[in-house]
Design goal:
By secondary structure, the protein is an alpha+beta fold. The protein contains 25 helices and 19 strands. The longest helix has 23 residues. The two termini are 33 Å apart.
């Protein structure tokens, strides 16, 4: 896990000790464990973790003006210096427009500016501390610093309405630790704090000029190619040296057994369009993807393409065939990783503590098995669906913009899938109602649904689309929460509805941004849960410039069936890749749900033991017997929302790992200086004052 942390004090020398630290309880100096100091008092900044040398860059203009960029950034030192000069006047958006995935921190005198990203994959957190504010790119270090307890309201909202920003607000699982929203920057100056957005806000009063589809797709291609090229241009890194031979094992087997990635660059190759696009781009662009700096003949090695073949569940045969056809490219070296019941979801409930909880915790062992055969730099297609696909609520945006004719093809596709002639009228009616419903009313409807425990929704593809045509909807785990927890979230939503504006954005765009933020947050959890030493996972679809280019795609193009595959096909054609296998980009009816059900069935006994005395019951969020009953029913094959059970189980796992940890993220503090210092105190009612 890698993060940066610093603080801004109220006055020069107020919190500092002259040695880039702060005075602790007994006069000792505070600083993060395993850190490297980037600059010192009065507003110090550290980088913590196994950062590569090229991932941490600091450029100075003078003693009072400097910029630190951590991560993969395509800007040169001269571009960073120019960006620093521009940022001295307060402008920050240009700091987020360089290719790559990074966090930028600017110090201009006593003003500190920390830029978050657009997707939420690189969040920024802050908390009041020592008369000023501490900030970090991880929440747990700040929780340790201020000895934060759990925020039970946030945990309840995380289960009851995980896709609703108004329910989650800027909170985190740690009480008092806040998160800046995606697309915002944190500005600190002598104890004062401001969270400012750096993206222009579109107006509903004036229609945006019509975008040219061809130019928009070309912009996506340019941004994606530049994102891949930036990573190919970075120095190659050799993982830790192999300590020696093992009888009966070759070099590749030794690396996998010891958790060491293969040197060079690789990519997922699942057979889907997103991973296939990145693999072909990385293999086809100049830069010798597999060649290590200073190693080999310089002729270049093939890019390592990794495909996961689940032997325990069927249904992905067509995708595997397409992956094999793509891997016939001479620039690719194809490796197929097989997994049986030991790689099903819930098969391995042990793992490291992550910064925050996320549903991907139950699938960490499954992903770790694939990534163990991957490269030191590994491309993944995560985020493509969220930035390219159309959320069903975007149909209402078309009605807001008076573009009814563009609804014909997506509605016709739903009608063919359902086989009912009533589908067009139902979908159009739901989209029209959403287009005429204010944001405030949407929050009030959700608050009432939670209060009255109304969770039944239509089934099938059409039912899912109809349910998504709303400003907000309950989470899949909401049905198993206690009445007190649901009432607490309902009251919170009503308060947020009263504070909300009259509705300053389109419902489809709002829902799409919320879905992207949730996916990016869960991907961050997954990256920490499956972390392999010396390996870096790259998700170019979540880079700022790629997200911006995708947001400029016209709604009329985005909502068409097969739009994502068509856009990525055009991207590949623009990069010179035209020989794609038949069926490439076909919608996947994959085996995700089947694998989840099979894993739940196989791990029924350990899961029932997990919820014999759950910590979630101590928080007042669930009743143990209700969850155990749901687990038995799901294992028996009853149609229950499996993603809701994944939310519950992953949160319980995370709580247990958090409370069982030893130590803290800081040195120079007493042992009590850690998050949740007194454990979870049982709450019998989530609404009880002082609970």
């Amino acid at each position: 896990m890698r993060w940066l942390v610093g603080w801004s004090s109220t006055a020069a020398g107020a919190a500092g000790t002259g040695s880039a630290g702060a005075v602790g309880y007994d006069g000792e100096t505070l600083h993060p464990v395993g850190s490297q100091l980037l600059w010192g008092d009065p507003d110090p900044l550290w980088a913590v973790g196994d950062w590569r040398p090229d991932e941490v860059r600091v450029v100075h203009a003078d003693a009072q003006h400097r910029i630190a960029v951590l991560g993969i950034c395509g800007a040169t030192d001269e571009e960073l210096r120019r960006g620093l000069f521009t940022a001295r006047g307060g402008a920050v958006r240009h700091l987020t427009t360089w290719p790559g995935s990074y966090t930028a921190v600017v110090q201009a005198g006593r003003r500190i500016t920390v830029c978050g990203d657009l997707a939420g994959a690189r969040p920024v957190f802050y908390t009041p501390w020592a008369g000023g504010n501490a900030y970090a790119t991880a929440a747990l270090p700040l929780a340790d610093l201020v000895e934060a307890n759990l925020d039970f309201t946030h945990l309840a909202a995380l289960l009851a309405a995980p896709d609703v920003p108004a329910a989650l607000r800027d909170s985190t699982p740690y009480d008092g630790v806040r998160r800046i929203p995606p697309g915002h920057a944190l500005v600190l100056r002598a104890g004062a704090r401001e969270v400012a957005g750096y993206e222009p806000v579109a107006s509903l009063a004036v229609a945006a000029p019509p975008a040219d589809p061809g130019r928009a797709v070309d912009a996506v291609r340019d941004a994606l190619v530049e994102a891949v090229r930036t990573r190919l241009s970075a120095p190659r890194h050799v993982p830790d040296l192999d300590p020696g031979p093992v009888p009966g094992m070759g070099p590749a087997e030794r690396r996998a057994a010891r958790g060491m990635p293969v040197p060079g660059i690789g990519a997922d190759l699942s057979g889907g369009p997103a991973s296939g696009t990145l693999a072909l781009l990385a293999a086809g662009l100049p830069g010798r993807p597999g060649t290590l700096l200073g190693h080999g003949t310089g002729a270049g090695e093939r890019l390592l393409a990794v495909t996961f073949n689940d032997l325990a569940v069927t249904g992905r045969e067509a995708e595997l065939e397409r992956a094999g056809a793509l891997a016939a490219n001479p620039r690719l070296h194809h490796v197929v990783v097989t997994g049986g019941e030991e790689t099903l979801p819930y098969a391995d409930l042990d793992g490291p503590l992550t910064d925050e909880p996320g549903p991907s915790l139950v699938q960490a062992a499954r992903h770790r098995a694939r990534l163990a055969a991957g490269s030191a730099d590994h491309f993944t297609g995560h985020g493509a669906r969220q930035v390219l696909d159309a959320h069903p609520a975007r149909l209402a945006d078309l009605l807001v913009d008076r573009k009814r004719r563009h609804l014909v093809r997506p509605v016709a596709a739903l009608a063919r899938a359902d086989g009912s002639v009533m589908v067009p009228a139902r979908v159009y009616g739901a989209a029209r109602r959403l287009a005429r419903t204010p944001y405030r009313a949407g929050l009030e409807v959700l608050a009432e649904r939670l209060m009255r425990r109304r969770f039944d929704e239509p089934k099938g593809a059409v039912g899912a689309s109809l349910a998504a045509l709303a400003w907000a909807r309950p989470g899949p785990a909401a049905r198993w929460l206690t009445g007190e927890a649901l009432a607490e979230v309902s009251v919170l939503l009503q308060v947020e509805a009263d504070r909300s504006a009259t509705g300053a954005q389109r419902p489809g765009d709002y829902r799409a941004r919320a879905a992207l933020a949730r996916h990016a947050a869960d991907l961050r959890v997954l990256e920490q849960a499956v972390e392999i030493r010396s390996q870096r996972l790259h998700a170019p679809f979540l880079d700022n410039q790629v997200v911006r280019a995708c947001r400029d795609l016209p709604e009329a193009l985005r909502v068409q069936p097969g739009a994502r595959a068509a856009i990525l096909r055009t991207v590949l054609e623009g990069a010179g890749v035209t020989d794609l296998p038949p069926g490439w980009g076909a919608p996947s009816h994959g085996s995700t749900a089947a694998a989840a059900r099979a894993g739940l069935r196989a791990a029924a006994d350990p899961l029932l033991d997990l919820f014999s005395t759950p910590l979630l019951a101590d928080t007042g969020l669930v009743e143990a017997r209700v969850v155990r009953k749901a687990l038995r029913s799901a294992a028996a094959g009853e149609a229950l929302p499996l993603d809701g059970l994944a939310d519950l189980i992953s949160l319980e796992l995370w709580l247990r790992r958090l409370l069982s940890r030893r130590g803290t993220c800081w040195t120079g503090t007493p042992t009590r200086s850690r998050a949740v210092p007194s454990g979870i105190q049982p709450r019998r009612s989530a609404l009880t004052p002082g609970a």
